Amino acid sequence: MSGQVPIIDVALNYNLLWFYPIVWLFKLFGPSYTLLRIFFFTLATITSMLSFSIVWMTTRRTWLALLTGILVLILPGQLFRNYMAFIVVLNMTTFLKAAIPPCQTEKRRLLWMTAAGLSLGLAFLVRIDLGFFLSIILLGLILIYPAAAAFPTSPLSPPTTIRSVGRITTLRKRLLKSLTFLVLVVAGVMALHLPVYYDAVKRGFAPQFLEQYKQWPKMISCQGITLLNHALKESSSLLPLNHLITPSIENSKESTPQQSSSNSACSISSLFSSSIFHLPSSTAVEASPTSHLPPPTSLWLPSSISYLPSPAATAASPAAVGVSSVAAATPTAYSVQPITSIRPVGQSVTPPPKKTTLARRSFISSDIRERMMALNLYLPIPCSLLLALLALIFLVIGSQSKQRGLILLTCLGTSLTLFPQYFFWRPDMVHLSEFMVPMTITLLIASTFALELWLCTGNLLRIFLSIFLLFAGAELLLYYINGCQSQSTGGIAISQGRNLEFKAANGVHVKLAPHELEEVQAIYQSVVTHSQPGEYVVCYPYNPEINFMTDRPSYRRDLYIDDITAPKNFNQAAIKEIETYHPAVIVITDWPINGTEQSRFSQWAAETYHYIQNHYTADYQKGIIHVFVRPDK
Are residues 514 and 480 both part of a single domain? Predict the structure, then answer.
């Protein structure tokens, strides 16, 4: 909003359309938290309507479609992250419409093929990794499309000779349609990207914009190799399963306020449902063939350069506030100067030797909710395998069932595009809830098909169908029981115990629990008392909602940091930034951000933490919340 250049001045980590709609809304109506909630509630509602459409289109059961829409709306995923489920469900809709169900006219099918390209382009512009995963699914559909004519036919089909001639003709037509499908998809993707690319050229970040599309595939493949090597190593060592399922420490995000010292961080984040602008972990370490690989639960993001604005630019122009406080980490007159101690893009560097993996829920925990969460995290694996087998069964039992098999494979494939981000990156309820939106649709459709097949098949197949229905039912039941009690799924549980009003800048007007109100009010008062509009407020490791609610900017290009993503020289760079910008207030929430003790800021960034303690004055401290103010303030 204040002229910052995306990617260069502000580390986005996600792609441009994750932020542009919010920027456009704020330019039209001004920064407003209420407006943000309306925008993301609208996305959740559209996702629910699309879910209804998919289930009705595939099953023709209105009651089941209505149930699906309601379930998706009950647990839509954490607010302010509803892009994820929306993008996947939107692409599921267009893929099914374009490739599987019969259309009334060929012209309509061509329109849906174009729509599939547009929805895929939208996915790329929101999350590049998601776009690549969805591209694989759509490419598979395009390849399968002509082969459908060669699938086994039912006993009621015409004689072999007539059937063969008709099949050859149909195959030729389908090959032509597949080629048309591919051309229309590419055209749709390009049609959405061209205006965005033009804007990037106009604003001077076109090379950086295009570079993302080169680096993400490298990161994904490198991460896949890392995970495969880790799995092979573990299996060769014959280690028990519970070695891979690290029990989470007591300070879990899902624990109660009385049980968890990390709850203070959750209290602050709950103001915005774990913050409005939820950035993924950025990193200053890029994968290279010669570098040592990080732990298998960490991801390397393509943005790997850190910047330090010049002191002259900082002094010459006060930073804009409002949305730029959060969505942009640099002032208007930002002058980019790469820090010499942090490598430029293209150079490899050895990651820090001491990295920690993310804590996972344990099946042997004494807490029943921990065990339920472990089941929630791992049940999708056997369910997906059984569902894939069910789809193959439909493909081979007869021509009348081929369409159902393709429907299941399409729904399952699109749903699994969200599997890596929760299972390998963030095994928590926030990311699981995003995956479960499309997976709920898929499981309900598959269960309906399985029940109908169960009623008209033999005993042997009924055994398999019963096993699938048991797993599918268990996954849905356990997830919705656990999800409806969690404050991380976008459900009604987030309002429980929150009846005290809190008001702040930028239209923030929310209800909080008593202990949350005490902490948030203390932070707010400390910041507005000891800083003036335009003065910097820095939050470690990640609390941009504090900048937003106090209307104070941050000088940091990337607002997120943790023990996994921090570069080796983070402490030196962070201290240099503090000495350069002299932030008025520094807020540290010393919570175990990755579920381990090592992931507390005071542990992995001890040098920076001690520097702040020695050079700033403690103004407020409670539990893991530490607010420091500049001595002259």
Answer: no
User: In this structure, which amino acid lies at residue 213?
Assistant: Y
Q: Are residues 575 and 560 in the same domain?
A: yes
Contacts of residue 156, Cβ cutoff 8 Å, sequence gap at least 6 = none
CA 498, CA 477: separation in Å to the nearest integer? 27
Domain residues for the domain of 305 are 264-345+498-633
- N- to C-terminal Cα separation, the chain: 29
Give the Cβ contact number of residue 78 at 10 Å.
Answer: 26
- The first and second tokens of residue 131, run together, are 């776009």
Q: What six digits make up the tokens of 408?
A: 């299941």
Check whether residue 464 and residue 401 sit in a common domain.
yes
Per DSSP, 424 falls in state: I
What is the domain count for the chain? 2
pLDDT (tens digit per residue) in 416-429: 999 999 998 888 89
Q: Which tens digits make up the pLDDT trace of 194-248?
A: 999 999 999 999 999 999 999 999 888 887 787 777 656 655 554 444 444 343 4
Dump pLDDT digits (tens) for 123-179.
999 999 999 999 999 999 999 877 654 444 443 344 444 445 555 666 777 788 889
- The two three-digit tokens of residue 510, written as one number: 């929310």
Region of 595 (left: φ > 0; alpha: ψ -120 to 50; beta: rest) is left
pLDDT for the residue numbered 166: 54
Residue 8 forms part of a structural domain: no
> CA-CA distance, 578 to 98, in Å (whole number)?
54
Q: Which of 438, 468, 492 is the last residue of a domain?
A: 492
- How many CB atoms neighbour CB 425 within 10 A? 17
Please list the residues that pair with 307 across neighbouring strands.
Answer: 338
